[in-house]
Specification:
This protein has about 400 residues and is an alpha/beta fold. It folds into two domains: about 140 residues, Aspartate Aminotransferase, domain 1; about 240 residues, Type I PLP-dependent aspartate aminotransferase-like (Major domain) (Aspartate Aminotransferase, domain 2). Helices cover about 40% and strands about 20% of the residues. The protein is built from 13 helices and 17 strands. A hairpin with a 2-residue loop joins strand 1 and strand 2. Helix 11 crosses helix 13. The model has no long low-confidence stretch (mean pLDDT about 100). The structure holds pyridoxal-5'-phosphate.
Length: about 400
Amino acid sequence: MKISDIGEKYVMHTYNRFPLTLVRGEGMYVYDEDGKEYLDFVSGIAVNSLGHNHKRLTAAISEQASRLIHISNLYYSEPQCTLAQKLVENGSLDKVFFCNSGAESVEAALKLARKYGSRTGRQEIITMVHSFHGRTFGAVTATGQNHYHEGFGDMLPHIKYAEFNNIDSVKAVVNENTVAILMEPVQGEGGIIPAKKEFLQQVRALCDEKDILLMFDEVQCGVGRLGTLFAYQHYGVVPDVVSMAKGIAGGIPCGVMMAKKEVAESFAPGDHASTFGGNPLATAAGNVVVDELLGGVLDNVREQGAYLEKCLDELLKKYDFIKERRGIGLMQGIELDRPVADYVAKAIENGLLLVNAGKNVIRFVPSLIVEKKHIDKAMEILDKIMEY
Ligand SMILES: Cc1ncc(COP(=O)(O)O)c(C=O)c1O
């Protein structure tokens, strides 16, 4: 029986998969069961920050696995404590909570906001239309796209939606019960839509004025993707709380929620927890990712991001069915005037892995170690499939 047939038979059908079984990866490339090579511009949807089979990362994982894979958060571990230290010392937030995924890191932020608000009796959280925050009940309620809610009954109460990049819309829903505003600095699943700097500054000012927490979901746009360790550093607007996951441990499940000291203090022991959160294996990997980012990979993101942007702009000029290019650094998208599913499928046939973001947007989120030659090759394939 083929692997894909076994999967179809035994794995719950929550994904529509491409007919592709991948068996190994090396740098920017992955290989299927027949040995066919694919240039990977998906990187596990912004997860494999250092590409595939990164020597320092795999060595750290295997070394840590042989030393200590897991302990409980009843005890301290060196990889967890040093990763927290690096994240704090290289950003503007003071305390770290570790979990295992993006939805969990958002869930932790929502709970922290509720706990913070309990002191003043406030519990309403505002999120943005077209946002995506994950699939747990809290995170999916925060997600401002109705189709993710349909069929699941009542969503969590006390969450309201405002229009992204529209300060008047935010002001219109803020009231005396509002405790936090949550948003992605660059909306990912919603179609690669960057926040305007002015909007983030206006929301920051509003939050300061009304003692409302500004919370950024950097699950997709953080961890170096915009050319800075944290997405908020690209914008120069510091939130009170930030959620991260995906690329933070290069593919080992790991989520992070960080907060300013005075906000973090709302959580007391027992208020929130995670069995696996920040375990030695995941955080050993996270240490390598952060070291590599700070040791030169961020410079690469800025350089290659600018190059990718330029190449996509050339494509935009060439094909009138490409409506717009959007994005920052190595988080880019092109919006077509039609669904992109066929283009993504054709790219795969031609040896290039791409992923959509919504119906009409092709997303480009390669590993942060991508080089000019990989971008050139991706553009060559893209140009070919656009001609069809
Ligand atoms: C911005 C954002 N937040 C949260 C999530 C959920 O992350 P996870 O799938 O790890 O739960 C995602 C996933 O795509 C995301 O893009």
